[in-house]
Amino acid sequence: MKKMIVIIIILLMIFVGMYIYKQSRITNKQNTEVSVEEINKIETYLQKIYMWREITGDALPVFDNINDAPDVWLWEVVKKNLEEYQLTYQQLQDKTKEIFGDDLQKEFPKEGYEYMEYDEKTDTYYAIGSGLDNQEDVFLLDKIQKNDNGYTVEIVEYLEDYSEGYETTDEEYNIQIKNLNDETIGEVKSTESETNIQQFVKDNIDRFSKKEVNLKKDENGNIYVTSVRNI
Length: 231
Prior knowledge:
By secondary structure, the chain is of the alpha+beta class. The protein contains six helices and ten strands. It folds into two domains: 36-127, no CATH class; 135-230, no CATH class. Strands 5, 6, 7, 8, 9 and 10 form a six-stranded antiparallel beta sheet that branches. A four-stranded antiparallel beta sheet has the order 1-4-3-2. A hairpin with a 5-residue loop joins strand 7 (174-178) and strand 8 (184-189). The termini are far apart.
């Protein structure tokens, strides 16, 4: 009987110990891991600011401070995220703040720029179309680290070349996967999912370039890019 009681006590101690360990492990994971909701939010934001090399020179330029980012990239990001293409100056300023936050001290140029024309008669701005090539600038999330002010995100950059699709009427054709040096790393079928393409990039990750993107999170949960560097 005594042996049975001792065994029960030992098992109870083991169970309590396992429970405490599990709870502490969950807490630690919650403090360090990034939730699916956070990942989706980060990816959505990066898609907003990820541009086209043929227009902005770099889909995501390198800068130490958002105020050092190239002007054409900044204003093309704003233009890309417009719901309308005929706007007032204040609407453009509001959109700029919405995307880049208060840290950006630059103001949208009142005279307009190459891809946003100002009409003095109507005092409005008109978005002008941009010529794009057959290569889609793409990124995938590689690593996300949460910190006190926001997130440090590592992305992998690559190109999806759809040139063959414009030369054929076939539903299935080859999409060339290239790095930013325009070197073809491989091909995937147009009928394959984006997940399969991303897996191909991951399998050949050493042949693609990476960037580290620092994102600031404000008290309302909004995130803004603060700096970008090559890895």
